[in-house]
Amino acid sequence: MKQLMTGNEAIARGAWEAGVFFASAYPGTPSTEILQNLTTYKEIDAEWAPNEKVAMEAAIGASIGGARAMASMKHVGVNVASDPLHTFSYTGVNGGMVLVGADEPGQHSSQNEQDNRWVAKMAKIPMLEPSDSQECKDMMGIGFEISEKYDTPVFFRVTTRICHSKSIVECGDRTEVGVKEYVKQTEKYVTVPLFARKRRVIVENRMEELLKYSESTPLNRIEKGNGEIGVIACGVCYQYAKEIFGDEASYLKLGFTSPLPKQKIKEFCEQVKTVYVIEENDPYIEETVLMLGFEAKLKGKNVLPKYGELMPDVLRKSIYGKNNKTIDYDRSKILPRPPTLCAGCPHRGFFYDIGRRKNIVITGDIGCYSLGYAEPYNAMDSNVCMGAAFSAAHGTQKIFSGPGKNEKRVVGVMGDSTFFHTGMNSLLEVVYNNSKTICVILDNAITGMTGHQNTPGNGLNARGEPANVTSIEAVVRALGIKNVTTVDPNDLTKMKEAMDWALSLDEPSVIITRFPCVLKRITKEEKVEFNNPFTSKSKVNTEKCVGCKLCLRSGCPALSFETASKKAKIASVQCVGCTVCNQICPKQAIEKEGK
After folding, report:
1. SS3 (DSSP) at 103
2. What are residue 568's DSSP bridge partners?
3. Closest of 97, 53, 88 to residue 73, by C-alpha
4. CA 364, CA 486: separation in Å to the nearest integer?
5. How far apart are CA 570 and CA 206, in angstroms?
6. How far apart are CA 279 and CA 232, in angstroms?
7. What is the mean pLDDT of the chain?
8. 137 to 161, 174, 193, 544: CA distances (angstroms)
9. 25 pairs with which residues across the strands?
10. Taking the chain, what is the end-to-end CA distance rounded to the nearest angstrom?
């Protein structure tokens, strides 16, 4: 059976065919759809985890228990999972275990462009890199075989274009491998120094065996071409290189990249006159080519960009100095469309209030609310990584407080999913050190930025089935916060009162802004709680409108200003009736439809 699949769909299919029993993940572009597709296979227990570390730990537990298991996450998520990953390299597996990490060259939706090939090398584990959807499916099965044969977790590295591009996949049936018997092995799985030192020797011996595998596996293959050019590439760069050079080049296609097949690389480089190493981000393969003594032949980062995606047009310009001819157009007629908070976004009321306040420093976090930094709010001074907002705010507040210092108040901002991810630890730092930091949790009852995945706070699991609800208020109070208030952020008066209240305190406080994401499916309970939201739109009464443009400060994309009439205008197709602009208008010129 053949199907057209994205890489993420194919990874899920490959896991199913390989007999995986358990999968855990935290959503993050470009890896999110892997777990979402895994939930469609009834034989796999697929679940969202609060963060990548616990997803990895749950998969480790399932592996030790004897089942084939996997975890998936984006590249920065691997940072969070790094602690258990490095130790699991020492213990080895029982049931096979594969970690799928999705890198993002070009930083389409990420805060950095790190190259996680180094993680596999540092953790001393094997790494697979597919170059299309068929290989995504096939290599998943190979990954579990390698994991169990060599007693190791396997790193499965993909990138954005592999995750989201589609190609034909030849599908197969599921192989039921069964759950292995669990046998207590204290010296293997209890990593006290006495036992870990012994496992360290095993890891080194394992890497020697994996090097032999790397040299012999068909995953690393030489394809003879017609010319004197040689190309070494892995992942999607192999596809890009084939498009550029065609049959004029020979290729060393690397699908197993940790450890690298040094002897095969050496033999390949000796056979050609010029060696192009085409790899996105860091010179991971290139460093080995240089170490082997082929600097004179090498064209790598000395010719190609050091960062960003190496798409065919980028390669053509770097290698040949020009691109293929394309249809030209007047670029001055293309209007910029910067990202913005959706019309009706419940975060708008908070950012409208905080952005107008003076002497406030705002530390943000990772989510769609990161857009609070932009015009017209200008309401974010920094953001670092998931869950850092409160602890970073605490550190900044410490610097701004004290005798003789420039007294500023610091506000930390994060979403509900981020709070469950690592924000609780961050808040504990504030509580433990009795910080006067103001901590704001923007609760929109969903993981908004990655496509509306459920969270521990909204009562649904990865399959949309009923799940236990974790109350943010209860967690906040349990951590030791005494000053807690919950507010509807669309009510600007209450939002202002809540911020005034927090600013008046000289001890830790938490404001929870609660209103569902405008794009999520509203539950029956939410309809009751929020009095049937999004049922009535707003409109401009042109007789009352004086053209002051104050409503535009809401930053809502449904609002515009007509220069001919000098009146504000609301696009009815976008408006959901959140009423933020109604409250901003000093002339009450914005009304609910039907009036």
Report:
1. strand
2. 561
3. 53
4. 19
5. 65
6. 8
7. 93
8. 15, 12, 38, 62
9. 48, 72
10. 58
For 151, phi and psi rounded to 5 degrees? 55, 60
For residue 506, what are the β-bridge partners? none
Give the Cα separation of 394 and 509 in Å (integer).
Answer: 12
**SS3 letters across 47-79:** EECCCHHHHHHHHHHHHHCCCCEEEEEEHHHHH
The rounded Cα 584 to chain-centroid distance in angstroms is 35
Contact 494/488 with Cβ under 8 angstroms?
Answer: yes
What are the structure tokens assigned to 275, written together? Answer: 């060696």
Could you give the count of Cα atoms lying within 13 Å of 93 in the half-sphere of its Cβ? Answer: 32
In angstroms, rounded to a whole number, what is the distance separating the alpha carbons of residues 101 and 158?
Answer: 6
The DSSP 8-state label assigned to residue 366 in this structure reads S
Question: In this structure, are strands 567-570 and 559-562 parallel, antiparallel, or unpaired?
Answer: antiparallel
Look at the alpha carbons of 54, 57, 59, 65 in this order and tell me if their dihedral is positive or negative: negative
Q: Mean pLDDT highest for which of 209-213, 325-329, 406-410, 564-568?
A: 209-213
Q: Which two tokens stand for residue 591?
A: 């009304």
Q: What is the distance between the alpha carbons of residues 147 and 226, in angstroms, rounded to a whole number?
A: 37
Q: What is the pLDDT of residues 23-53, one digit of tens each?
A: 999 999 999 999 999 999 999 999 999 999 9
Which residue's structure tokens are 């190259």? 115
**Local confidence band at 538 (pLDDT 50, 70, 90 cut-offs):** very high
Q: What is the DSSP string of 241-253?
A: HHHHHGGGEEEEE
**Cβ density class 237-262: b for 16+ within 10 Å, e for less:** bbbbbbebbeeebbbbbbbbbbbbbe
- Max Cα distance, the chain (Å): 82
Supply 530's token pair: 């929020």
166: which strand partners? 6
Per-residue pLDDT reduced to its tens digit, 415-465: 999 999 999 999 999 999 999 999 999 999 888 888 888 888 888 899 989
Give dist(CA 422, CA 81) in Å, integer: 12
Rounded CA gap, 150 and 375, in Å? 54
